Amino acid sequence: MPTMRAALIPLVFVATGLLLTPARAADGPPPMVLLWPEGAPTLQGANEKEIITPAGAQPGERINSIQNVHRPAIEVHLPPKDKAVPTAVIVAPGGGHRQLVWGSEGLDIAQWLNDLGVAAFILKYRLAQTPNYNYQVEREALADTQRAIRVVRARADEWGVKPDRIGVLGFSAGGALAALAGIRFDRGHSEAADPIERVSCRPDFVGLVYPGWRPMDLTAPRDAAPAFLTSAGLDDASHARATVDFYQSLFQAGVPVELHIYGRGGHGGGIKPRGGIPFGTWHVRFQEWLADRGLLK
């Protein structure tokens, strides 16, 4: 009887589709889930290879950066079941829309979130500064972010999260996407042929870490997502100004928002210690903010 049961398990997985995109791989690298398996809207360069650093990294080996993204996806990092809480964070690495800083602003963040019991989904989004392509931050990159929210929400049960506890945490250029996702969203298109598009793309919360963007409309509606904002100060002045400006937009709209501007600390680096200066503890403040909102239980 055990032999027969073991033989049936793969058939069940095939029938449910989990064999193609498992929620958790028993061994090997975390699964990568395409946001549009049939091809993204305004798809360009579908047959081009991504450029990764270090070159030639094998599945499961650490990747520090990714360029030339044309197949947007999320990499699924689930916490151990014995410590999991039903909260999900979509992590949007920075990189100036030229690359994705996949290591320090993706993998390291996912591991830290998993240690808190939070499911993490690293977003591989299309890059507006990719040479020879016409991708735009407010079009393709935002569409990828919105689609990631829909996909995680649509598959919330499978990944052990609640559909009303899905946030976006963005770094630098990824912070622009977190900001846009928090203020430009829809509740789903009920008549859409694609069932994923029927799901809301409004995040339940957003976090912006040393965010930056070119001039764009960041006027916040009253139902914008609650936000956590942080940046270093005078030694990263342009990003500090962007952070404060977005805080003011949210505050004036009556949206719950928390702001931390540190005296110094520079730009980039994710959750590195920074030699013991206060900015090296920004992630502890974010953890406290999540706990205060009831997202860590």
Q: What does this protein look like?
A:
The chain has 297 residues and is an alpha/beta fold. The protein has one domain (28-292): Rossmann fold (3-Layer(aba) Sandwich), CATH 3.40.50. It has seven helices and ten strands. It has helices spanning 2-16, 103-115, 137-154, 156-159, 173-183, 237-252, 282-292; strands at 32-34, 51-53, 65-67, 73-77, 88-92, 119-124, 166-171, 205-209, 227-232, 257-262. The chain has an eight-stranded mixed β-sheet with strand order 1-4-6-5-7-8-9-10, with helices on both faces. Strands 2-3 form a two-stranded antiparallel ribbon. Strand 9 (227-232), helix 6 and strand 10 form a beta-alpha-beta unit. Helix 3 (137-154) packs across helix 5. The longest helix is centred in the middle third of the chain and has 18 residues, at 137-154. 42% of the residues are buried. Residues 1-26 have low confidence and may be disordered.
